[in-house]
Structure formats: C-alpha cells, structure tokens
Amino acid sequence: MEFRPPRTLGSLVGGGLAAWCFAVTAALVIRGVTLDVSLGVIALYVVATVFFFMGLLFAYWTYSLGTLRYTLDRNALTIIWGDIRQMVPMSQIERLVPGRELHSPHVAGVSWLGHHVGHDRVGGGIGDTLFYSTHRSAADLLYIITPNQSYAISLDDEVAFAEAVQAQQRLGSLTAVPQAPERLYLAAQPFWEDRAAQALALAAFATFFAMFAYVYDQYPGLPASMALSFPHLNGVTRVASKTELLKLPMTGIGLLLLNLGLGFIAHSWERMVGYVLLLAAIGAEGILLAAAIIALR
Fold this sequence. Notes:
Layout: E1 2-3, H1 8-34, H2 39-67, E2 69-72, E3 76-81, E4 84-89, E5 95-98, E6 108-112, E7 115-122, E8 127-133, E9 141-145, E10 150-154, H3 158-171, E11 181-183, H4 195-218, E12 225-233, E13 236-241, H5 247-269, H6 271-295
Parallel strand pairs: 8-10
Antiparallel strand pairs: 1-2, 2-3, 3-4, 4-11, 5-9, 6-7, 7-8, 9-10, 12-13
Helix pairs in contact: 1-2, 2-4, 4-5, 4-6, 5-6
C-alpha cells in the first residue's frame, strides 16, 4: 500500500532554484569568455563552479522530492526519498499524532517551501523527529511515534493512512526489520563518509585553480608571439602564439573531471584505488602548473 504527499509546490520551488543556479553559472561563464584574459576573470569561474554544484544539489533534492512516498506492509512503514529508504518496523509504531495539535517545527536540513527533509526536536512529547514532508503549515503534518524516534510526514488523507497502519499491525510482522535508514545507489557511496577522499578531491580542485590563476595572471603581459621552451624539442625553442598557453587550463579541466570521476567510481569498489586516482588528479594538475612555469621561464 502506497501513499504520496502533495509535491507540486516543492517541485516547482526546487526546480526553479536549480534552474536559477544553472542560469547564473551559464551567465558567469559566458561573461568570463567575453572578457580579456586576466587574473580577475578567475573569480567569475570560481563563483560559476560554486553555483554549478549548488544547481546539482538542488536538482538532486528535487528529484528526491519527486520520489517521496510512504509504503506500508505488515512488516514496516518505508519512507522513500531519493536513494534513501527509512525503515520503521510496524511493531514499533505506538501512535499517530496530527500536527495541527502542535507548534510549527523548524526543520534543520534540506528545507524549502513545500519540501522539508531534516530533523527537529518537537514538543508535546514527540521528541527528536525526522521530517520527510511537504508541509506548508503544522496542520499538514502527521507524526509517527516510536519508542526511539519520531517521524513527520505529509498526507492528503490522514484517516486512510491511520486505518492502513492499524490493518497492517493486526496482520502481524512476518520478518524482523531494523529501524534504520537504508542507502542505495548514489547515497550509498562511501565517498560521502571518507574525509580523506574528500580532502584529496578538494586538493585537486585547488591545484587546478592554482594553475588556472597562474596562466591567466601571466597572460596579459606576454607578447603576441613568444618562445616556448616546453615541451623540450632537442634544444629547439618553438615560437608560437601566446594563445597556446590557454590550452593548459582546457586540458586541466578535462583531466580533472576524468580523474575525479574515475576516482569516485573506483572508491566505491576499492578505497586505495580511489585514493590513487585522486592523487593522480592532483599530480596531473601539478604537472600542468609546472609546464606553465617552465614555458614562461
């Protein structure tokens, strides 16, 4: 048996936020491309990168909202949000409390109008509560109380849900279900819990932007044509347009995305292989930085 909350408002807000972030990203990148190459342009690209990742987050959270539903069987209530399954054993559900009897909560987590996933400590004997709701006011909430944890959900028909819970409880459980979240697919990746891997990924980004900044800082003062001592060609110094230096940041972007992507995937299979690929990302950007320094020496 499945129940779905109202999701239209939250999806519109979340989709709008994601679209706005991607639009800002595109505008900043286009602005950066049209400006003359200089160190100041790097700031545009840094901000564009931040907005791009914010857009990805909002897009993922909005997708998760689209999947939000509550399923019931004789063993458990399962709250599904994206790649997370929150399991609540049917035998642990003590009572249901309508939200209209309580004050409006302040949800800490992913929270915007029509979409609230997070936690709060609710009064009235409810206690620590996990929210998977689309409420706009306290009256839209239904609290599910268990001995160790409470849950807040949103429903169009609370009476039908309560009757379904009672019917499943009368049937009795066939198997024991742990009261815990189950993470699947993207949410299950160990990268999100590995601080060392995250630090290596950030270091790769930092090395890339250091190389990017060096090239853009030196570029305005260079002559239109210049002698390039890198790559080394048996002592022959090559004369080329200074625009060839701009190939370094483009190469750096490709190598960064490739190594980070492979590192993220490999990390879920074998942690040390993931570390090696993330270190390779740092090394590749370091080599490009060294190439830029040598070329301009």
